[in-house]
Amino acid sequence: APVAMTATLDNKQPYVQAAVVMTLKVYVGVPMLQASLDWPSSSDVLAKQVGEDKQSTEVRNGRNYQVIERKYVLIPQRSGKISLKGPVFEGQVQDVGSIDGSDIDAFFGNVFGHSPLSRMMGGTRPVKLAASPIEINVLPRPDSNSASNWLPARKVTLQETWRPDGETIRVGEPLTRHLHLSALGLTGAQLP
């Protein structure tokens, strides 16, 4: 196919409110004139793009593809099975089979003679592609967890530093204590 798309999850069975990283790859094997990538919203999962798009090249089945990779963090808001519509790619690609646009005329059957679209489009054609639905089986908060704060993180660290950091502390001098809480697999808003 001239354009293909794949989506992979780093965890298909997370706990509720735990972050899941989805890697989306768009493979483009023809010249692209314009493109957009949209993802239908869902109240079941918060989705946010992380980082910048990465571009590379790859050969698949003997064809060269430009690969655009985009990462999203998904945070499920409820437990149970969740099915999300996949991202939708839309664009205009150069029609390598027809530089003069005669394929457009053939598509519309030459009902009205040569289509004015063929001259306006200049040998391009629209492409719309939707990724497969994304299935996640979200685990509920464990019954054994009775704490008020729920941190479904992979790694939580708490560090402290003191100012001044010397061993000698004098009466009447101010002390400053800095606490740094970090968690892998959560957003900053989820930290207590």
Explain what this protein looks like in three dimensions:
- This protein is mainly beta.
- Helices cover 6% and strands 49% of the residues.
- The protein contains 2 helices and 11 strands.
- It has helices at residues 102-107, 116-121, and strands at 3-9, 20-28, 32-38, 45-60, 63-76, 80-84, 88-94, 124-130, 134-138, 155-163, 176-184.
- Strands 1-2-5-4 form a 4-stranded antiparallel sheet, with no helix packed on it.
- A hairpin with a 2-residue loop joins β4 (45-60) and β5 (63-76).
- It is elongated and about 80 Å long.
- It starts with a strand and ends in an 8-residue tail after the last strand.
- The model is unreliable at 99-119 (pLDDT under 50).
Question: What is the count of helical runs?
Answer: 2
- What is the average of the pLDDT values? 82
User: Percent of residues in helical segments?
Assistant: under 10%
Helix-strand makeup class: mainly beta
How far apart the termini lie comes to: 48 Å
Low-confidence runs of at least 5 consecutive residues: 99-119
The outline comes out as elongated
Largest sheet: 4 strands, antiparallel
- Total count of strands: 11
> What is the N-to-C succession of helices and strands?
EEEEEEEHHEEEE
Strand order of the largest sheet: 1-2-5-4
What would you report as the Rg, rounded to the nearest angstrom? 26 Å
Percent of sequence in beta strands = over 45%
